[in-house]
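Encoded backbone
================
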Amino acid sequence: MSEVSLSKWHQEMEIFRKIKPCLILEGNILDSYLYPLEGSLSQGAIVRLPEYLHYYFKDIGYENIIMFDGIRGFYNKYEAGYANRFADLVKANVTGNGRIAAEFRGKNNNSAATMVEIALTQKDAATVVIMDFASRYINDPVNMQQQEIEGFTILMQASLEAQEVRTEKGILKNLVILLVNKLNDVPAWYYLNNPNVKAILLRTPSKEERAQLIKGATFPDRPSGNRRLNIDRAGFHDDGTAYINGPTRAPQLRPLADIQCVNWIGEAACEGDPGGLLRDGDICQAASSAAYVWQGKTVSFSWAVAVHADMLLLYPALGTRIAGIVELGNLSLPFDFTPEKPGECCLFSFEETEIMNLHISLEQGELGEVMLIGPEQEE
């Protein structure tokens, strides 16, 4: 499972779908989103919000999932069968293009609001209605026409009388979800002081969410299949061949210059690694780096003048288990480490210490790289 975190709005939706039968998602509703869960939709897929909601509610157990907008009526273009099931539930007809014709306004039996009321107040099948482009249902939320008032009044009645349905995945509340550009696109009397309505703000993606898109997105519809794209460091070996430290799925160090730190291994005298494979910059994560894996069992580093460090990183070659002992100054540190994610290292963190000698004895596995990190020191 990859490290795709849940956005704030998703966490709120997860909480309030169990409590409120009407959710209003406002703000950045027209954007595409990185799907954060593994299920019917591949984790990391980039989809528009209605598709995101479809697969989310499908995987938590909803049987009926239907979208509505003022142009197409009721529909579900993401998977077959949903429009027909919804039509059976509300006693409506599906047209040849797989849609159920309906207008939002009014109180007749063929109005969208009436069908939503039927769906929310029944107890036979867990149902969620996603009302897209809801900002376009009425002309003016302050000066509404009578049919517009009737439509939102029916929705309010539906939210007050919405039922829960017992399913194989537990009890699920029937839901209606309105997607609006801004909250005041719907009449204030619909959501103010209505205990059954919750407004959730979808902001533009945060810095962390943008980073996830670059570092951990999957694109299952691309020819490369389910390959994960990452930003990984690249460089060159002494023989001129290129390497890429990736794909990495574990957090990596920021560029050391950005945090005023140094990898002191590069300045040490070394015994046991004549080729410099443990300090060539290649962590040997990729199979293409197999020829650059250190094959030794013991290695020693020393400095003529003590260096200050507070972190030691041992990178297992090709994601294998490593075990052994590190002797760092007066410290003797046994380790037995198996990476759980590509690019994960065995990390020792300690108080800033003066170090003149570092010795590593490897009993199991192979090393790709060693880093001893500390603050820059004045000349």
